[in-house]
Amino acid sequence: MTEQTAILAGGCFWCTEAVFNDVVGVSKVESGYIGGHVENPTYKAVCAGTTGHAEAIRVTFDTEQLSYADLLDIFFATHDPTQLNRQGNDVGTQYRSAIFPIDAVQQVEAEAAMSRNAANWPSPIVTTVEEPTTWYPAEDYHQEYWAGEGQRNPYCLAVIPPKLQKLRKSFAARVKA
């Protein structure tokens, strides 16, 4: 097994975590914060929009089962990369669409994925490709959120199932049984 890491921000990390936990080849998804200017940010501070961080996920995946390019195609298909600093009702730079490549190869792949996926959207993709600054894991109660508390959260119940349906419909061969 050849493991690689990808760091993606596609709005609420509860939503992106739920999607990528269902993808074949993904062994771990961690919610956290990246791209800001405050050390050890808290959820409350990030939500206030004052730290510069994005809610993001750090995905560990097996490149023998899932390529970084395929992972990015799933990312672009399961959130709206045309909304600047928002996803639905979540508004602010902390909900921006961003890719944080960890090396030059991922940088090239990220730019190629944006070009490749542009035709799938009626408006221009506004996803940013940003330097991978320090990663801060989110507080424990955010990890595996959809599998627990998220099932009782009205916001999650409204937003996550349509994302999972899109994953299952568009990437059926990539969904865990």
Describe this structure in words.
- The protein is α+β, with helices and mostly antiparallel strands and 177 residues long.
- It is built from 5 helices and 8 strands, in the order E-H-E-H-E-H-E-E-E-H-E-E-H.
- Strand 6 (97-99), helix 4 and strand 7 (128-129) form a beta-alpha-beta unit.
- It is globular and about 35 Å long.
- Belongs to the MsrA Met sulfoxide reductase family.
- It catalyses: L-methionyl-[protein] + [thioredoxin]-disulfide + H2O = L-methionyl-(S)-S-oxide-[protein] + [thioredoxin]-dithiol; [thioredoxin]-disulfide + L-methionine + H2O = L-methionine (S)-S-oxide + [thioredoxin]-dithiol.
- Keywords: Oxidoreductase.
Quick structural overview:
The chain has 177 residues and is of the alpha+beta class. It has five helices and eight strands. Helix 1 packs parallel to helix 5.
Topology:
Layout: E1 3-10, H1 13-21, E2 26-34, H2 43-47, E3 54-62, H3 68-77, E4 86-87, E5 90-91, E6 97-99, H4 104-117, E7 128-129, E8 136-137, H5 154-170
Parallel strand pairs: 6-7
Antiparallel strand pairs: 1-3, 1-6, 2-3, 2-8, 4-5
Helix pairs in contact: 1-5, 3-4
